[in-house]
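Dear colleagues,

I hope this message finds you well. In preparation for our joint manuscript, I am sending the Phosphotransferase (Kribbella ginsengisoli) sequence together with its predicted structure, so that both groups work from identical material. I would be grateful if you could confirm receipt.
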Amino acid sequence: MAGVDEVEVVVAHSERATLRVGDVFLKVDGNQANIEVEVEAIALAPVPTPEILWRKPPVLAIAAVPGKALGVLGKPSTASPAAWAAAGAAIRTLHEAPLPPWPSKKNPDEIAADLDTECEWLITNGFLPADLVTRNREIAQAAFRPWTPRFTHGDLQITHIFTAEDQVTGIIDWSEASQGDAMFDLATLTLGHEERLDQVLAGYGTDVDLDAIRAWWSLRSLLASHWLIEHGFDPNTPGCEFDVLRARMKH
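The corresponding structure tokens are as follows:
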């Protein structure tokens, strides 16, 4: 990093921060369990991942991966259909890999309880109309069905998959990896980019539960909005979580 004179704050809030210094990302996390999961998941995942340069708690240094992220939430993606299909194929490879030795952080009962709490908070505080929240709560119910645990990334946002020349060059941010629901990964990737789902499935395969994916669009948006608001983010930005919830009213 010799000669680097600029530090970019990629994300920063009360729980963690990520800084970029040249071609190195420095992840600072007060919860060392998250760092431990990230290190082990990167070692186990059979897909392109970033190189871990060093670790000195509470900091983890990771090399930047080549290529460009598929996009960002709230803006149209300029990535090609082939790049989205390549992402789908990489996710399939991950989901078919041997399970990591640790389970999911939350069980369905805990998620359902959190969902009830967050729905009430959104209505009580006037962030969303009651009918919109109620309708999305009904759609979200389809996520609570029997599913076979897979090796899941757990936070597969569009900004976390990088491609170049229509090939996946790296998948980053593995702190939420676990034995999870494969449909959650697919829903997280296509959140706010529903038009790209068919392209993802062209690489992933069609043996998926579309109702569960749609349910996770609602469920993730309902669960995340309170946290986003309290940490200085705006889920009401065009194309983001509130628009995802509004879109469900049209279907």
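For the figure legend, we might mention the following. The chain has one domain: 66-248. The chain has a mean pLDDT of 93.

With kind regards,
E.M.
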